[in-house]
Specification:
The chain is mainly α and 475 residues long. It has helices at residues 9-14, 17-22, 25-45, 52-60, 67-77, 80-91, 105-141, 161-182, 199-204, 209-222, 239-267, 292-316, 327-354, 359-373, 375-384, 389-410, 416-421, 430-435, 446-462; strands spanning 146-151, 154-160, 271-272, 356-357. Helix content is 64%, strand content 4%. β1 (146-151) and β2 (154-160) form a beta hairpin.
Length: 475
């Protein structure tokens, strides 16, 4: 089938159906109509001239949006919200006079956006919990497998595969805590009018402030009983958008770090992301098993962290009660941030569930460096056998430097243990030195740390099902 026009890869390639539905035109504009209906119902309940017959007509045409009519109206009036008002009015001639009564455009656009944010964050939370469960399970399964620790990407004290995974999971767990703290602060705008004072609604009720306030309370109740911002201009505070996108950006940081580590360890032969039986790694090099999904996580996460700058700049640029230069930017940045987050988490879950470990490669890489790592234990053992600590330290240092130089210059094996065994001033045989090189001796509390983190922190945070959604709103 021909596809002559650009389509975002987030729409056609990466994001899930569930997240795409949240930001679909049907869902967004369906929320607009439900918001207008809630307004009309509340006005009817409080005695304004909105009839039951008009409400019935609006309900009868709640979901049959005529997009061709909307497009035709917008080409003429150059106003998207009014185009939808007029198109719905065409379908509901009896109710046409009361659609949008007393409201500004932000009544529907901003309240709908706030509901979308809550719904989208609920999906993010569920998928984040899936990622945490997968990483927690992997961490427990591999908590006892020693691996070479890397600082500055150089050999360092050993860790375990599972403890490294626990560190990845801890980053995501921080994101979950931040998300759960943010969700309750997403309130409704309510019905505030042109500058947030509710003046138009006070006028509708002939100066009755109590009814104007009751109208907002009635609408909030119809929208799931959510609280309303105490004060606002015409729009809800754009600082909220910045907080939401900064949260998603932080999640991108966690995902990037996880995927980048997997890429590095796959290059060392210790880990491997899932690879299909008939998957092609390279169009040229048939042997390749490239970490394409982890590379994609890093690529999308980079885009995600950049999107946070849009919301930050928009929040800074709000003039007094509002300015419209937020509109076009938010139409792109908010959906893209959530679709990107969704795509990233889909990949994180997939990789975490299918991570393959190669313990023999972990051991090989560790044993190549272990003679250097074990030098402190060798020093202590030499002293126990009557050696002089300072002299022994100097001899071990010299042997270590010579062995390292031989490895680098000649590509030879590490012969540090042989050098020490042949040194008459260091009273240790080759067998005795070899006994000091048991990898599990050097991982410290890594297995215990992993076990405690998963059992005491991760699993209680995500609950027994591991995928609890929060904040979903249906109206």
């Amino acid at each position: 089938m021909s596809k002559p026009y650009y389509q975002s890869p987030l729409e056609g390639r990466y994001a899930s159906d569930a997240m795409r539905r949240v930001f679909s035109p049907d869902h967004r504009y369906g929320l607009w109509r439900r918001l207008w209906l809630a307004l009309a119902e509340a006005e009817h309940e409080l005695g304004l001239p909105v009839t039951q017959a008009q409400l019935d007509e609006l309900r009868a045409h709640l979901d049959d949006i005529d997009y061709d009519a909307v497009r035709a109206h917008e080409e003429r009036v150059r106003h998207d919200v009014m185009a939808h008002v007029l198109a719905w009015g065409d379908q509901c001639p009896l109710a046409r006079p009361v659609i949008h009564l007393g409201a500004t455009s932000c009544y529907v656009t901003d309240n709908a956006d706030l509901l979308l944010l809550r719904q989208a964050l609920s999906l993010v939370r569920a998928k984040l919990c899936e990622a945490l469960r997968a990483l927690g399970d992997f961490a427990l399964k591999t908590k006892d497998i020693p691996a070479l620790g890397l600082t500055h990407l150089q050999a360092a004290q050993p860790v375990t595969v599972g403890r490294r995974a626990a560190c990845w999971a801890q980053d995501f767990l921080t994101d979950l805590a931040d998300l759960d703290a943010l969700l309750p602060s997403i309130r409704l705008l309510g019905c505030r009018g042109a500058t947030g004072t509710q003046a138009s609604f006070v006028a509708l009720f002939d100066g009755d402030a109590e009814k104007a306030q009751a109208l907002e309370a009635h609408i909030a109740q119809k929208l799931g009983g959510l609280p309303v911002f105490a004060v606002s201009g015409q729009t809800y505070p754009r600082k909220l958008d910045a907080r939401v996108l900064n949260l998603l950006s932080s999640l991108g940081i966690s995902a990037y770090r996880f995927a980048q580590d997997v890429r590095l360890l796959q290059a060392r032969g210790e880990l491997e992301e899932p690879f299909g039986a008939s998957q092609i790694g390279s169009s040229a090099m048939a042997y390749k098993r490239n970490p394409i999904r982890c590379e994609r996580i890093c690529s999308l996460s980079r885009h995600l962290t950049a999107l946070a700058q849009d919301a930050t700049a928009t929040a800074c640029a709000q003039w007094c009660e509002r300015t419209l230069d937020d509109s076009a930017n938010r139409r792109i940045a908010l959906p893209e941030a959530f679709l990107t987050t969704d795509a990233v988490l889909e990949l994180v879950v997939y990789v975490a569930r299918g991570l393959r470990v190669y313990p023999k490669m972990c051991e090989k890489n560790l044993r190549e460096a272990l003679p250097f790592i074990a030098t402190e234990d060798i020093l202590m053992e030499a002293v126990k056998r009557g050696g002089d600590r300072q002299s022994a330290h100097e001899r071990i240092r010299e042997h270590a430097q010579q062995a390292a130089l031989r490895v680098k210059e000649e590509g030879a094996d590490n012969d540090l243990l042989q050098r020490i065994a042949q040194d008459a001033t260091l009273p240790l045989t080759l067998d005795e030195l070899g006994a000091l090189l048991e990898p599990s001796k050097y991982v410290g509390l890594a297995p215990l740390q992993t076990e405690r983190f998963v059992q005491e922190m991760l699993r209680p945070a995500i609950g027994n099902d591991g995928c609890a959604a929060a904040g979903a709103i249906t109206i």
